[in-house]
Design a protein that fits this description.
heterodimer; A: 421 residues; alpha+beta; 8-stranded antiparallel β-sheet; 6-stranded mixed β-sheet; globular; B: 306 residues
Chain lengths: 421, 306
């Protein structure tokens, strides 16, 4: 029996993040996307109409949820929005454009399958655009889409769009962004957001929404070597099950696995996928494993196929975005939170900062990383960590630096080194 | 290494992904905190939370207790459901009672009769006295624009206050639960779920619900554009008339500010079809207290509301 319920739930989920400079029209685009896809309900629209100054509803008001944001007319923090079409469910991380909130774009982009970067067609690629491209490249967001907005204000001219698209594609391509799509739009007029524009017949590509519906939502997590960070040990009637969310790859019953950092080897006896005994499970499923041998395994350990183990190391080089007002300096004592393990570490060196404003070139020995700075950090950890290169695994190749005193989240880190499995 | 073993790769629907993410959050809290508690009202979101917690630790029992902030104006059907569920799973339920606070003079009834804002004090005092260090809430970001700004792990100070401008960045699947003694963390496993996701999950998992979620005949009266249930809590007033209508509830909460909607949906499929077609949000349709001001939810959350 196939009910309407099952039909609607058999959809995929796309997570995407928006980024754009102030006044590029990002809030208007998000509002337009929600409005034209009929995801704004009438009571929300009524509230916006009441708060709008002019006759037409100010769609930007839909997205600024905090008192301080409405007071200042800017987006301060990431807001998450949810909408759906018949083809797909969307989680939109709506991130602020101001330079001082770059860390919030990093927050939104860390889980995104796609980054939607906005530019104003009149201004073209500016420093913030390069910064957004650098963040998307740093976090290896699988798809990057450039929306060239306000095409109505440049007479819908193809040459204007083509020049911006070419400059951005060249810049982002150099940074290593794998897939770049460029779309000319007017968020205010609704051109190429949901409906194709009647004003740009020279453009044959998809609208923003068509593109969001069509891109592959699933990073190829199945192809990477399997990784299961142990979150919690479930003990019941003398049986130990190792619970966790598969961070990458596929685990199979009967497979030989090694527990890190101890190095003990055994085989997978059973996989429980939330109540179902399965022969195999893949990222990002939450599972509980039973192992063939009685081993000492606890939270913070990593289970991986013996044939494809990550490199264990205490010397770590990472590309980072510093998130906290307190600067990060060489000699700082920090905590590293990597998967389910937290260990002490010391900042040995900060060899480079990256300055996207000057085309992404490195600044040598900056002395400190300040809030929103991108850079490279060398760390020494108190215990060896099983690190994958971020390029191979977003979850086992990333970690946070945390302040030991007050627990503040300081720095987002992606590993640039590590032994290829 | 390639193999041809059948792997449920394509079978992961958006509900599977949301479920896996929520279970991961429950397990993180179990691994990192000393004394977590799940806010449980008997409403659909907390029912889904409990189901996810049961799955996360099966076959072992859920390693958390439950906490209900009882306004004293709850629907009797929901309280009965709550007690059945707690007993069925052998769980321990803490109750923080708004009525006790009013009776002892620590809280005063508001002129408008709504008790929702009065929940904050009993909640925060219970958290402090029991020394709960992680408090699971069923809040969803799709509910309201202040909630859209909420982290999955939300640090609260010793007064349970939320400061939206000083939230920790939250990246990847890495949740930072570090806190000083006296502080605690609010945890929202359903952050990324929508109302429709919750209903679809309830249908998929065949989870029983209190009957007031389905269309039934009920004596109601109209106040501020909403159908409220008549009762001892303070309605109807002299100028309000009671009538029998076929209604159901989209949310359950305090009777004084939770409205029913006209509905013919008596089955899960009908409820899902009705929500998918509705032009009103869940809170817009049924919650009076959110209409008090543009920032009602933000203000209550700052004070310690969940």
């Amino acid at each position: 029996m196939t009910t309407a319920t099952e039909h609607r739930s058999a959809t995929t989920l796309l997570r995407f993040a928006t980024a754009g400079s102030v006044d590029d029209g990002k809030s208007t685009l998000v509002g337009r996307l929600l409005y034209d896809s009929k995801s704004i309900l009438s009571d929300q629209l009524d509230a916006v109409r009441r708060a709008s100054m002019g006759d037409a509803p100010d769609l930007a008001l839909l997205t600024d949820g905090l008192r301080a944001e409405r007071e200042q007319g800017i987006t301060i923090d990431v807001a998450y929005r949810y909408f759906a079409t018949t083809r797909r469910r969307f989680i939109l991380a709506d991130t602020p454009g101001h330079v001082q909130y770059t860390r919030n774009m990093v927050t939104g982009a860390s889980t995104a399958d796609l980054a939607l970067v906005l530019v104003d067609a009149r201004n073209g690629v500016v420093e913030q655009t390069r910064r957004h491209a650098a963040v998307a490249a740093l976090l290896r967001v699988p798809h990057v889409t450039l929306a060239v907005n306000k095409m109505d204000l440049v007479g819908y001219k193809e040459q204007v769009f083509a020049a911006i698209a070419e400059e951005f594609t060249a810049y982002a391509g150099e940074l290593g962004v794998p897939e770049i799509t460029t779309i000319p739009i007017s968020a205010l007029a609704g051109d190429n957001v949901v409906e194709p524009s009647p004003h740009m017949n020279w453009y044959g590509g998809p609208t923003i929404l068509e593109h969001l519906e069509a891109v592959s939502a699933d990073e190829d997590l199945g192809a990477a070597p399997a990784r299961l960070p142990v979150q919690y040990v479930i003990r019941h009637e003398g049986v130990r099950r190792y619970a966790g969310r598969i961070a990458a790859g596929i685990l199979r019953v009967g497979e030989q696995v090694t527990v890190l950092p101890s190095g003990h080897t055994t085989t997978i006896a059973a996989i429980d996928a939330l109540g179902q005994d399965v022969p195999a499970a893949r990222a990002p499923q939450s599972v509980a494993l039973r192992l063939a041998d009685e081993l000492d395994v606890s939270r913070g350990d990593l289970i991986a196929p013996t044939s494809r183990l990550p490199h264990l190391t205490q010397d770590i080089t990472a590309t980072v975005c510093h998130l906290h007002e307190r600067p990060l300096t060489p000699g700082s004592r920090v905590l590293i939170k990597h998967t389910t393990r937290t260990v002490k570490a010391i900042v040995k060196d900060i060899p480079y900062a990256i300055d996207p404003g000057r085309g992404g070139g490195p600044v040598r020995a900056p002395g400190a990383l300040h809030v929103n700075d991108l850079g490279t950090v060398v760390l020494r950890s108190a215990q060896p960590l099983p690190l994958d290169p971020y390029a191979a695994s977003r979850h086992t190749g990333s970690f946070l630096l945390i302040a030991p005193d007050d627990g503040a989240t300081l720095t987002a880190c992606t590993t640039t080194e590590g032994t290829e499995p | 290494m390639t193999t041809t073993l059948p792997v449920p790769v394509a079978a992961l629907t958006h509900l599977d992904v949301l479920e896996s993410e929520a279970v991961h959050i429950f397990r993180e809290v179990a691994g990192e905190f000393e004394k977590p508690v799940i806010l449980f009202s008997g409403g659909k979101d907390s029912i889904v939370m409990l189901r996810l917690a049961l799955k996360a630790f099966a076959p072992a029992p859920v390693p958390f207790t439950l906490l209900h902030v009882d306004t004293g104006h709850n629907f009797p059907e929901v309280i009965a459901y709550r007690d059945r569920i707690v007993a069925a799973h052998g769980l321990r339920l803490h109750v923080a009672s708004v009525q006790d606070y009013i009776d002892s003079g620590k809280l005063r009834e508001r002129p408008d009769g709504t008790r929702n804002p009065l929940q904050t004090l009993p909640l925060t005092e219970k958290i402090a006295s029991e020394k709960f260090d992680a408090v699971f809430g069923g809040g969803r970001r799709d509910e309201e624009k202040a909630r859209a700004k909420e982290r999955v792990f939300s640090l609260r100070d010793e007064f349970s206050q939320w400061d939206p401008r000083r939230q920790r960045p939250e990246l990847w699947q890495l949740y930072n639960g570090r806190h000083a003694p006296g502080e605690h963390v609010r945890v929202f496993p359903l952050s990324n779920w929508t109302e429709l996701d919750v209903w679809q999950y309830i249908a998929r998992e065949h989870i029983p619900l209190p009957q007031i979620y389905f269309a039934h005949q009920r004596p109601v009266f109209k106040r501020s554009g909403m159908w409220l249930t008549a009762g001892d809590w303070g309605g109807p007033k002299d100028d309000e008339t009671v009538e029998m209508r076929q209604v159901r509830y989209r949310t359950v909460g305090d009777m004084s500010c939770t409205g029913a909607v006209d509905s013919t949906a008596t089955t899960l499929d009908a409820v899902i079809a009705e929500i998918a077609a509705s032009r009103l949000t869940e809170r817009g349709a049924t919650r009076a207290d959110d209409k008090l001001s543009e920032a009602a939810m933000e203000d209550r959350k700052r004070e310690g509301y969940f």
